[in-house]
Amino acid sequence: MSRAAPIAMPMAAPGASAPTRHARLSPPAAFRIFWPLVSVNRVVVVVSVVLLVVSAACDAAAIGIVGVLTDKVLAPGDLAAFWQPAALWLGLAAAGAAASAAGGYLTGWSSEHFLLGLRDRLFQHLQQVPPDALDRFGTGDLVTRLTGDIEAVESLVASAPVELVTTAVGAVVFGAAAFWTSWQLALVTFAVAPVIWFGARVFGTLMRSATRDERDSNGRLASLLEESLANMPLVQAYGRQQAEQRKVHREGRVWMRAGLRQIRLSSVYGPAGEFIETLSVLAVIGAGAWQISEHHLSVGGLLSFAAYLGYLQPKLQELGELAVSASSATAACERLVEVLRTGPVAESAPRPDIPPLAEPVRGALAFHDVGFAYPGAGRPVLHGVHLDIAPGTLVAVTGPSGAGKSTLGKLLLRVYEPSQGRILLDGRDIAQLPVDEVRRHITLLLQDSMLFDGTIRENIVYGRPDATDEEVLAAATAADAHGFIDTLPAGYDTPVGRRGSHLSGGQRRRIALARAMLRTAPVLILDEPTAGLDDASAARIMTPLRRLTAGRTTLLITHDLRLTAQADLVLHLADGTVTLVAGPLAATVTEAAHHAA
Ligand SMILES: Nc1ncnc2c1ncn2[C@@H]1O[C@H](COP(=O)(O)OP(=O)(O)OP(=O)(O)O)[C@@H](O)[C@H]1O
User: What ipTM, to 2 d.p.?
Assistant: First the structure.
C-alpha cells in the first residue's frame, strides 16, 4: 500500500497517542469527517441518484393513470379506452423498474467501494500508531471497529445521503401529485409530518445511546474472547476454564442487554409509526368521503389520491427511519474517531527540505541527555541518558526489570519521541528524519519471534521481499536454520502455522534471526534474544547471533551473561539512567556521561 499522510483529525491533540473517550458527533459532523477520507466516484453517485429519482417519477406518473382508468374505462365500461393508458402504464412500469435496478446497483457499488476505501484508510492509519497505544483498545475491539463500525459509518456517510435524496425527492413528487389531486386531502395527510419528525428525533437520540453501548460491549467482548483464546494453553493448564467461561458469559450478557435495548426501541418505533399512519389514512378517508359528497372530488380522484398516499406515507416513514438510523450510526462514527485521534507519534512522510542520511549509513549512534516519560505517566522512565556509540560496536544493555531498556529501543525506532534531549544516527538528529528512513536503517529482533501464517520462505523474506533464493539460503544457513528446514518435507515452502505454531521456540527464533540477517541495516536492536529458550537452544543461537551482530552497531538488551561477555561495552540501566559501564570502551562512555553531568 502506498504511503499516505496520517489522517488529520480536526479535534486531535498533536502527537496524541493515547485513546480518548468518544467525542459526541452529529450526523452532519460525522459526514464532514468521513466523506473526505475516501475518494468516491462522484459521477456514479450522481447517476445513481438520478436513476432512482427517475424510477420514483415513473411510479408517480403510473399512479396518475389509475384515476384515468377508473373514470374513463371502469365507470363508463368502455373497453376501447383501456388500451392506450394500459400501454402507457406498462411502459412507465418497465422504465421505472430498469431505472430502479440500475440505480440500486450503482448505489450498492459506491457503498462497497466506500467501505473498502475507508477500511484501507483506517488500517493505514493504525499501522502508524504505536503498538502500545493500540493495545489499550484490545485487538478484538479494533477488529469490531474495522468491520461492524465501518459498515455503520458507510451506511451513514455513503448510503444515507443517496437514500435521503431519493426518498425526499420521492416524497416531494408523490406529495406534489397528491396536492394536485386534492390539496385539502394532502393537507390532512401532511398534518402528521411534524409528529413523525418529532418521534424520529426522540427515537434517534435514544437509539444513538443504545447503539453506543452495544458497539462498546461488542468490542469489549471481542477483546475478551481474543485474549482468552490466545491464552488457552494457560487456561487449560491451570484449569481456569470455568472462570473464563464466567467472564465471557458476563460480558456476553452486557452485550445482550444492550442489544435488547435496541430491539425494544425499534419494536416500539415501527408500530408507533404504523399507528400514526392508520390515523392519517382514516382522516383522509373521512375527508375524502366528505369531498365526494360535496362533489369536489370524483371516486377516481380519491383512488388516485389513495394510491399516491400509499407511496407517500412509506416515504415519510423512511425519512423518519433514516433520521433514526443516521443518529444511531454516529455511535460507530464516534468509535472510529476515537481510533483516528490516537495519532502516530512520529511524522513518516518524507520532507523535501531535509536531505536524507548520507549513504552508506555507518551506524554511529548517540544519545544526548535523553529523557522520556510515557504519555500519561507522571514519572520519567529515562533521564539524562548520554551515550556515544561508534559504528559496529556491540553494546549490551543490562539492568533490572522495568528499568527502561526496551524503551531505549522504542525511542531509537521513533515509536516514541524523547521528552528531552536528542538521538543521533550518523550525527543526524533522528527527530528531523522521516520515520521510515530511520527504521530502514535499523533491524529489530524481538523476544517474541512474531511469525506470520505463511511459509518459512515468506517469513524469512518479510523484511526484504526482493531477496533471491540464494540470499534466503545464505541467511538461513548463517542463522543455523537451514539444517532443520532442509529436513522438512516441503523445505522452505513449509507453512509455519498461525504465529509459527508448527515450530519449536528455538526454531522460531532461528527463522527470526534469518529474517534479521537478510536486512542490510547497519543498526540492530536485539531484545532478550535468548529469553524463553532452554540452555541447549540458547547455546545454539550464540554463533548465529555473533554472525548477525558482526559489523553492525548493536543494542543488545539482555540478562544473559553469555551474551554480555561478548559485548564491546556493557551498560547498566537503573533509576532511569546509565549508572554502570563495563567493557573495553568503558572509559569513553564514562567520560561522555561525566561530560553530560
Ligand atoms: N506503553 C507504556 N505506557 C506506560 N508505561 C510503560 C509503557 N511501556 C513500558 N512502560 C513502563 O516503563 C518502564 C520501562 O519499561 P521497559 O519495557 O522499557 O523496561 P525494561 O527495562 O525493558 O524491562 P524488562 O527487562 O522487564 O523487559 C516500566 O516501568 C513500564 O511499566
Answer: 0.97
Residues 335 and 369 in one domain: no
- Whether residue 95 is found in the same domain as residue 138: yes
Higher-scoring residue by pLDDT: 4, 295: 295
pLDDT for 343 beyond 80:
no
Whole-number Å distance between alpha carbons of 494 and 482: 13
403 lines ligand 1 (CB under 6 A): yes
Gap between the Cα atoms of 231 and 499, Å rounded: 13
Cβ 555 vs Cβ 395: under 8 Å: yes
Domain extent at residue 278: 27-219+260-341
The CATH number of residue 371's host domain is 3.40.50.300
How many angstroms does the Cα of residue 573 sit away from the middle of ligand 1?
Answer: 12
Q: Which of 255-269, 341-355, 480-494 has the lowest mean pLDDT?
A: 341-355
Question: Which of 206-220, 265-279, 298-312 has maximum average pLDDT?
Answer: 206-220
Q: Is any atom of ligand 1 closer than 6 Å to the C-beta of 406? A: yes
What is the per-residue pLDDT across 427-470, written as a single tens digit (0 to 9) for each? 899 988 888 888 889 988 887 778 888 899 999 999 888 889 99
Ligand 1 contact via 377 beta carbon (within 6 Å): yes
Question: Measured between alpha carbons, how far is residue 104 from residues 93, 111, 135, 158, 464 in Å?
Answer: 16, 11, 40, 13, 45
Q: Would residue 334 count as lying in a domain?
A: yes
**Residue 246 forms part of a structural domain:** no
Q: Count up the domains in the chain and report the number.
A: 2
At 47 the pLDDT is 92
Query: Could you tell me the three cell numbers for 208?
Result: 444513538
Instruction: Please tell me if the CB atom of residue 449 comes closer than 6 angstroms to any atom of ligand 1.
Output: no
Substitution site in 374, 398, 557 for ligand 1 pocket (most atoms within 8 Å of beta carbon): 374
Hey, whose CA ends up nearest to atom 23 of ligand 1?
402
* Residues 410, 266 share a domain: no
DSSP string, 338-386: HHHHS--SS--S--TTSPPPPSSP---EEEEEEEE--TT-SS-SEEEEE
User: What's the pLDDT band for 10 if we cut at 50, 70, 90?
Assistant: very low
- The verdict on the CB of residue 448 being under 6 Å from ligand 1 is no
- Residue 413 and residue 329 share a domain: no
